[in-house]
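Support request, please re-run this one:
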Amino acid sequence: MKKTIKYYVIGLVSCLVATAPVVAQTTNNSVFSRFSGSFTSTGTGYQEPYFSIEGFIPFQNTNNNLTFLEGRLLLSTDSTMGGNLLLGHRFGVSDDAVWGGYIAYDIRNTGSNTFNQIGLGLERLGKNWELRTNGYIPLGTSKQVTSESFRGFRFAGNNLLLDVNREFEVALAGFDVEAGVPIARLGEGYVRAYGGMYYYTGDVGSTLGVRGRLVANPTNNVSLGLTLQHDSIFDTRLVFNASIDFAGSSRHLKDTMRLAQSVQRVATISVIGKTENTQELATNPETGKPLQFRYVTPGASTGNGTIENPTDNIQTALNIAQPEDIVYVEFSNSASSGFNIPDNVKVLSNALPQVVETREIGKVQLPNSGGGQLPVVNGTVTMGNNTTLDGFAIINATGNAIQASGVNNLNIRNNKIINPSEQGISLSGVGGRNIISNNRIQDTGAHSIFLQGFGNTQQLFTVENNIIDSSRAQGIFAQASLNSQQQVNLTDNLITDSTGAGIFAQANNNASQTINITRIEVSGTVKDNAGEGGQGIFVAANGAAQQTLKLDNSTISDNAAQGIFIAANSGAKQNFTINNSTTTDNAGQGVFIQVNGNSQQEFTINQITASNTAKDSNGDGGQGIFIAANSGGQQSFTLNSLTITNNLAQGLFISANDGARQNITVNQSSVDSNSSQGIFVQANNSIQDLFLNLANVNNTTKDSNGNGGQGIFVAANDGAQQRLKLDNSTVSNSAGQGVFIAANGKLDTVQTQQTSNITNANINNSRGQGLFIQSNDNAQQDLTLTNSKINDTKLDGNGEGGQGIFLQANGTQQNININNTQITNSAGQGMFVQTNGAATAKVNLNSNTITNSGSNDIFLQANESSKMAALAELNNLENQVINALSAANNSDKPMCLALRNNKTMSGFLLQRNNGDFQLVDLDNITVNNMGTVTFQPSKDNFTNVTNCL
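Re-run finished. Output below.
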């Protein structure tokens, strides 16, 4: 506003000055436009000196008549601004007298407020004497607040009384009258003396003052003034003024022609400060009505509910309470019975600091609040629409401690609920915005917090900073059914020792449910009497329901079943995100995620830790994270930065079954010290796409039966279509195979199809095989291995295996490409390739380095009626003990081998033991490779071909 005033006044005066030359050209030459400047010291109604810039514009000047316009811009030394615009007319009645009048508009900004006024005046100007009177009339609000403070507040009757201190600025109305005569000559002009009186009135009172002043005009362009005045409001003031005309007519022409003189008036609006101390009722900022309180002291004598005479019963106060009232309950040693809160009423105790919102001073803490002791209630509290319950101990209630049904907008906070026979807080069909905060709920006969939506209810619940202990049913139960819409925000709650589930969220029918869980701790959940439940967090969507879950920064531990259980069933849609959370020391699974029956799940898990999962009471489970899609269910998910350690079964278990579809991405995961498998992935009669990137799998052990032990286990079964991409991953210290990949089909059914691409893998210190690839029966298996390292593969517990890479096709189709891979320190073969039954295999081994194998670096074998076509090219085989490459055809079908540019010191052994053995460029095979080639029975038993593949 202040800036707006500045621009307004500056623009106004600028226009006046800019138009001055044009106006002067159209008027009588005796009066020209003028541009002036002046200074005025501190005076009546203003605290700081000011400078002014003035424009005087005549626009009608004929026959001793002059109509003119004056504009001023006032610049105070405290950087505030003001100005005025004046329209005046003067006319000469004789050579010695000029009469005139004017109307003016004034504006002033004080730095705190802006004031406006209208000015009116009449004047008689002459050679020997002058007379003038001016009037000042404020426009708009003449009394404006500059500051407001509150010295205190207290209860009085049924209200909250505020002690208010306000600072005002008041613009004064008034008038002045003065007369003056010349008393001496000075240079080119005169010294004139004026005397008069003035009157001001306003909200501060009225005053009549006297004023005298001297004005000297030593030249036609300079004016000096000194004013002395006194009144009862402003006391005695001495004011100095100086002005100078810069261009145009002088304001001081010859005495017979005073038309161009500036109007003599107070140029700025007179403003005075005022302080008021009042007592006012605090009001509701929404309604503007006074806050009204009903006071209760349980056990006191019966009163009327004022602070001076409180009632002794909460329900009595509620019976007389009006909408927007506050029932204020003081602690006493007497317990209260249950009560019903009518619509739009708050029930507060003085146990905790109680803060209410006022229009006058914002939030204030009520007097006598913060005593620390909760008033006791021994019954059920039933809440109405738009109600609040704050600061009570509800103990041993028969039924629910707090309940509401079919109402809206509840606030339940700072209460202690102990040992109700049913729910601690039961809200059924409650709509609108609801807050449940800072409550302690323990030993409930059923759920601690029960939230239910049905019909077309729209619900928003904020549940925060609650402590829930020893519920005999779920700690927090949230259910949305039919067409209801429910959002539950759970923040900073501690839930311990619940029965069934710490948190239970379920969406049914056509309901929509959103669950946001942040900084929750859930522990110690036990199973119910039927042996069911026991989950830390249970989330399920059923039917056509839509459910969204967000779980952040939470810890779920020491529960009798799954730490986190999430399921979508019977066509439901589920979308969820889990961030920065921990599940530890749970039974069954740390995290269990399942989609069933044509349901859909999309989810992302970031930075979760799943550790120390035990098997359940039946000896099942034990997985850190378990994810399954069943019976046509669809899952699309991304797992980032997982830490999965010390679980009694698989660290990460992923399974797609019975027509399900999965799309999986796993990034930057650490899987350490788990049993059975570090990562287990399986597709059964389903479609599965899996991308594993930057996985680090260590120290996988066998299960209690001596089975498993694989770092990564991947299997496609029963007509499944599975695609695996494994990049930049490390598998170390596995008790079984480092990486196990299998495709299994069944005759006379849909063919199983599996495609695996492995890049930049490091597989270290495995037992049995470093990389195990197998396809069986009606399956097609494609494998590409690139830029990988397989080191230190040991024999298994039976003294068998030891292959760095084991490739086997049993009655299937297999396509193998292994490129730029290093295999070192294998206890058995560096690379073992075998076909059996009616299998068909195409094998491409290119630019690999195999060092220090316990048996052949590369072993190729075709058995029974299988076919193998192999290309071994640019391999560096460094076996110093036996033949580096051994290839044998035991099949009754042809086997084909191309050997080109391989290097070895120990040679190649080629055996034809049954069917035809075809060699590409047979005659030059020795020349094309470095190392001795041994043919058995003889070279003549082999067939030369131009290519195999």
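The CA atoms of residues 513 and 579 lie 19 Å apart. The two ends are 86 Å apart (CA to CA).
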